[in-house]
Task: structure prediction
Amino acid sequence: MSLLSTPPGTAPMTDVILSVHHLTKRFEGLVANREIDFEIPRQAIVSMIGPNGAGKTTFFNQLTGIIEPTSGTMEFDGTSLIGMAPHEVAELGIARTYQNIRLFANMTVLANVMVGRHVRMKAQWYEAVIGLPHVAREEAEVEQRSFELLDLVGLPRRYADDLAKNLPYGHQRRLELARALASDPKLLLLDEPTAGMNPGETRQMTDLIARLRRELDLTILLIEHDMKVVMGVSERITVLDYGERIAEGTPEEIRTNPRVIEAYLGKQATA
Amino acid sequence: MAELISGRQLRRVATIGAVAAVVVLYLCMVGLVEAFKDRNVVTGVITLGAVMLLAVPLIAGYRAALPARDPSGPTPGPAQRIVFGLLVGLIAGAVLGVFVLIASAVDVRGVLVRISPPLLAFISFGLPSGLAQLAITGVGGLVGALGALLLVSPARIRNAVTSGLVAVLFMSMIEPLLRPRLEQLDYTAISDFLYKAHGLTEMASILCFVVGAGAALLWQPGNELVRRSIEAAPVQTRRRIRGWTIAVLVVAVLILPQVSGTFLAQVAVLVGLYLLLALGLNIVVGYAGLLDLGYVAFFAVGAYLTALLTSPDSSLGIGLPFFVALPIVMLGAGMTGLLIGAPVLRLRGDYLAIVTLGFGEIARVLFESDALRPWLGGVQGILGIPSPFPVRIDLQLGTTHIFATGPQVLYYPIFAFCALAAVFAYRLSNSRIGRAWNAMREDESVAEATGVSTVNYKLLAFALGATTGCLSGALFAVQLGSVFPGSFDVFVSITVLAVIILGGMGSIPGVILGAIVLIGLPELLREFVEYRILVYGAVLVAMMLLRPEGLIPNRGRQRELHEAESEEEEETLDGDLMPQRGQT
Result:
């Protein structure tokens, strides 16, 4: 498969932070992602939806360097992501949260956020061992910044010294978000950020996502099942089904797209 | 009238009694009782062997009197509980009595070599058969009832009696240390008052008991008060308290060899060497969560590198001065860490443990091998490592006279290195690096995705752990003046790991306490040396069951292990999957 040229028809947008072309991932016969083209404009909120097993998480995992694509290109802010280790991707400015919350369970809430800042910290091990003053200064700054992030995501500061795993569910989601934000990402990947939440919490989270984009100049890519969230918050939506992109457009376009409705309802819709 | 004992209670009593009986028989059969039956605790009254035997029904009686875990059915009253204790003791005593009867009638020494006639005579109080059985059973029942009585009595009394008994035991155990020292310093009167025939005198034991019990009575309300006020204190005060604690500890370490005498200094040197090893392994296992069972390899590499570089008799024969060789040794150590770390980077958990275990053994086999004999000396090892320190230190500082000979000379350098390693480890653990390690321990792939280069941080942990271990090995080599491959078997790795587990993973104060308890105490109880591994095993099993977070836990870990797990059910909310058709 030739990937030498960008496909015709995708007119270059004014400012694209992430562009993916012909991305394909095969797992021993199963094609999890087939020839996916995908772009995110800077500071947009874009969603990716699709039924279970459509290949959304596989797509995320390729973006973040956890699994390597079989073929295709991924470019983030002018840098190719192909062959990068996850921590290098994080350093470039892509942070993520997980569908089933994955915190550092036995570390404190504050430490969780501070780990998120790791890539932006400079202290080397020998400097820490010697105890240079700039190490302590950096540590204090990051602690301060982490508290501010807790405020931002709405996690009360009194939880700071608790173990992450002892937080109530909703707070764990917020903490995961704070950890992701700590690295000052340019692109934030949210994997079902409202999974397991009640309608009230979901609304709060949706508001928070919109606010984060505004206040931090973030670009956000969302995987979500909850259509209210998706429709309410995103500017553009991409729909995957069986590993293929079947639709792309504004929420209004997606809502009325017959292929999307069919993909979600399957045979029942046609019956 | 309610029945005295219900069927369920009877079963429980029988179970505990049976366990007690098995433990008693076991102690006799492995020879622990025999080994200690001539060591006086209170001369003419009781020996350590007897203490050991009696402790079993005491503890069993105490346990039997504890409220049952299943609270259904009537709660037994105090009198009933004492009866439980009595029964448990009777069972244990009766079984032991029967065993003595059989053992004196039939010769069992072919199988159970430790069951000697003197032992049997000791157990049966020198009484003839028949009477002896009665006596053993009776004493068992009595002690079991006492154990139950202890539980039934108020907490203050219980604590006072326990600490009184512990005080007596402790004072008699340190006799081999204290007595020679007292006599050396011309406090013969005190020494004669305290000790007679390697045990406490009756008067001294009463005094010890009173002091121990009194201290417990006074300390208890105070203790609570102190704890509460420390908890309420602001951060700065707490920091100051910590500073003072460390200062006191440092002063104690500085003074110890001046007052302790040679033997204790020697024990302290051993504790220091293991402490250094444990501080290093703590980085690898405690912080980074990489279970390394082959840590002895680094200890060996450090010792051998030092031997090669400094001994004029080694194959290199260059005889570098120790402090010139040390940087080279540490560099080599770091490289070894990377070398061993690199191939195991992808392994996690159990797999890593097995592979490192193999590496540890490979190292020992290599040092032992005939192929490398021209360089490493094979089984004979390398001899003639000069001590970098003067044989004798004599210093006059103002009015204080500091002297040190033999092992004491190495004492200060070793503890200086320990202090350095502890400070370094503490600083690392509270920095970006320590957090990255912890994150890696918690969830490697998330840590990686959060920006931690797990490859680099694993290698760093291995390299730093290796360097610390090698440092200990280097000091070990110069302390001994020679190295043999036999010193570096897998048991060193296990011991160091046990120190960390006992003290508390990832906790520096815990590691220090662990080293003192696990390395220092067995040296003081010399009769134990033979049973050291057995006792280690028992201690580790007990720790894992009762206090898995260690003696002085790292804060996070304590919470992790002592919590009613209340994990939220992860429910998947079925959102509106369907676009709302009404709007279309």
